[in-house]
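Researcher: I'd like a structural prediction for the single chain below. Treat it as a standalone chain; there are no partners to consider.
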Amino acid sequence: TLRAGRRLALANKESLIAGGPVVQAARRTPGAELVPVDSEHGAIHQCLRSRDPEGPSRVARLVLTASGGPFRGRTKADLASVTAEDALAHPTWSMGPKITVDSSTLMNKGLEVIEAHELFGTPAGAEGVSIGFDEIDVVVHPQSIVHSMVTYTDGSTIAQLSDPDMRLPIGYALAWPDRVATPFGALDWAAARRLDFEPPDLDAFPCLGLAYAAGRAGGLAPAWLNAANEEAVAAFLAGRIAWADIAAVCAAVLDRHDGGGAPSTAAEVVEADRRARAEARSVMAAPRP
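Model: Treating it as a single chain, here is the predicted structure.
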């Protein structure tokens, strides 16, 4: 789609995370536009409308919000024996089993950090705002009303708020640069409500830190992490590993990553995905202490 110079409403984060350099090359095609459908990145896309496209970006930080999933507030010890049924009980969003488990481990948010870097950061070139992973934050926001925020150099923070309704970011991406006329997720500001924010617990949810590490490593490391996570989540849902083992498998596979350079073709991404999946299966098949 991008190579044809068309607008792509991107609803699949994994393709951008695994094949970022390949997508960025296609993105430079004249006429090509990449508008994200993920609610967090659709929110950032809207918040960035506040910057002057003709002058300096003046963007200081991107802030992704996370619901915290079903295990928000639990310690590492609390999570040792959680079940698939527990992990699939998301408090605010109705999603498929894989992404719901990713939400429970915060891997989904980690992958969204990499996605944000590709969409809006330094890799995006002229389409980006020249920021790196150190300028992308995650905060836990259990109400899922603030979908993400952009902080500018003068201290102002612009946020996008709505009830959790995926029709809003889908409509936004399809109508860009216009807006659809039907309100989805509109808030009733006369109703009493509260907005809470807290930092993520990286000890209880190490997948978030693993995603930052893979993103900073660059090249094919994000593809390896994504593939390892998919294999680990499938094994967890099948009852072959524990919830806490998902992060352990991903960490072990990242340790085996050979540090290869950035891919230039989709075939290289597919091969990296195959190798990482094989490594994940090998890790899970090994005897455990």
